[in-house]
Specification:
Blueprint lengths: L2 H5 L6 H10 L2 H8 L3 H15 L4 E4 L2 E4 L1 H25 L6 E7 H8 L3 H7 L4 E7 L12 E5 L8 E13 L20 E5 L9 H7 L9 E5 L2 H9 L5 E4 H9 L11 E11 L7 H16 L2
Parallel strand pairs: 3-4, 3-5, 7-8
Antiparallel strand pairs: 1-2, 5-10, 6-9, 6-10
Length: 302
Amino acid sequence: MNLLGKTLPPLASLLPFEAAARLESFSRAADELHITQAAVSRQIRGLEDNLGVKLFIRRNRAVFLTQEGRELGRVVSLALQSISDGAANLRASPQRNRVVLLCQLCEAFYWLMPRLSTFHQQYPQIEIQVVSCTRPITQFDSHFDVALQSTRRASGAHRLMFTASDEVFPVCSPAYLCPEQPLPLNELQPCTFLHHSSEPPHLMEWDEWLQVFGRVLARDARSATFDSYPLMLQAAVEGHGVAMGWRRTASRLIESGALVRPCAESVFLPEAISVYKEQGAGSRGEVEALLAWLQAQLHSDG
């Protein structure tokens, strides 16, 4: 007797439900699955009818998971992830020594790549596939084993392994501003302030940084805004103004003389960076080796 066939909910509804539960949005789930919002709503209504419970509360054109919806979301997500992992393992069976590292673009470019050769020297049998991304890991649709991103970014149900510190301070080109002694903060007011804009915000920006020292950015301050942090940092290198520099990404540019710190003030963030394992992933020696190496590198940098 096929008991599964009698007890399972409609299988076609599980992908739309998982996406809607994870994103808490029917429209974003529809975009992710490349179907209409009406189709997502129809599948979830059919699932609710099948189970006899409400999975979402619909209010003011927004949806919110009920307790039952949240519990089912965890079960379905783990089950689909297990199926996905099994399929991925079958597809990648000739590549079992490969580890996929998803890394924020700026950290990948400025922090990871200068150090990665030491991992290859220590573990020559492990192949690291670096995938860079400018969006949170919740919006990354492909497989990864380990992910590194700013702590403030959405992480969904992926498993947090450890965090690491960073510090934030102004940086600029020596051709733009290079005082013999560190400047007081008020002397930055005539400068052009370079801003990084993202939605939702995840990096400390000028307003928040200045508030730590009891100051505010003047309303008439000159500014330029960039949607890419590496682009903003390059603008600082080219003398367009003063940017917020993060030690882990800006330190080599400072050491090379491409950037300088015009002020002595700095904000220390004890948990600025987070490292994750993919949700539902099992234990693999290659992945554990990469995690141990990342933790050692991040903590040795302080």
